[in-house]
Design a protein that fits this description.
Length: 187
C-alpha cells in the first residue's frame, strides 16, 4: 500500500480540482472530484471524450455513492444484490440522482459506480470522504495505460498527480452490468 503522505498529496490535488492518475483493478484510471464541474470538464478535454458518455465513480463504501444515486429507486432486495457484488471489479449502472451534474452521467439517467477493492483508491476515497470520477488513463480510442510509467509517457504534464502504485493485475477492465437487471454491458 502507498504511504499515507502520498495519499495525502493525491487528496490535496483532488480537493484543489486537479486531475489524478491512479491504479485500479486492471488499468490506470484518470479521475477528479465529481462535485467540481471545472475539474470534470478538464478531464473530458484531456481525454478528448464525448460528454454524452458519462463516467464511472469509484468509492470505498456505498455511503460515498449515495449523493450520486437515486437510492429510493432501488428496492431493498435489489440493494442487497448490488452490495453483494462489492467490493470488487464489477461496475454497476444504477439510477442517478437527478441533482448531480449531467457531466457525470452523460446522456443517461443512470450512473456507473463501483466500490473498489484497490487499496490506494480506497485510501484516497477515505481521505477525501468522497467518491472519485474514474475513466481509463488514455486518450479516447487508445489503449489504456497499465503502469504509471505509461501514464507519464502518454499523458505527462496533462495530469496533475500520478499515484505511482500498481494495478491489481486483472487482464481486462472491469465488467459493467446493470445493477438492477444484471444485463451485461461489458464483460
Amino acid at each position: 500500500m502507498t504511504p499515507l503522505s502520498i495519499i495525502n498529496r493525491a487528496a490535496d490535488v483532488f480537493t484543489e480540482g486537479g486531475i489524478l492518475a491512479y491504479p485500479t483493478e486492471a488499468v490506470f484510471g484518470l479521475g477528479c472530484d465529481p462535485n467540481n464541474d471545472t475539474a470534470v470538464k478538464n478531464l473530458l478535454s484531456l481525454k478528448q471524450r464525448s460528454v454524452d458518455k458519462g463516467f464511472i465513480l469509484l468509492a470505498s463504501k456505498y455511503s460515498q455513492l449515495l449523493p450520486y444515486l437515486n437510492d429510493s429507486a432501488i428496492s431493498q432486495d435489489k440493494r442487497f444484490s448490488i452490495l453483494s457484488r462489492w467490493p470488487g471489479a464489477i461496475t454497476q449502472v444504477l439510477p442517478a440522482n437527478s441533482n448531480i451534474s449531467p457531466l457525470l452521467c452523460g446522456a443517461f439517467d443512470s450512473i456507473a459506480v463501483r466500490i473498489t477493492n484497490h487499496p490506494d483508491v480506497i485510501a484516497l476515497c477515505k481521505q477525501t470522504n468522497n467518491a472519485i470520477v474514474s475513466t481509463s488513463a488514455n486518450l479516447a480510442g487508445q489503449m489504456p495505460a497499465t503502469t504509471w510509467q505509461q501514464v507519464e509517457q502518454q499523458l505527462g504534464s496533462k495530469v496533475d498527480y500520478i499515484l505511482k502504485g500498481k494495478t491489481l493485475g486483472l487482464l481486462k477492465p472491469t465488467s459493467i452490468i446493470d445493477g438492477l437487471t444484471g444485463k451485461v454491458f461489458r464483460e
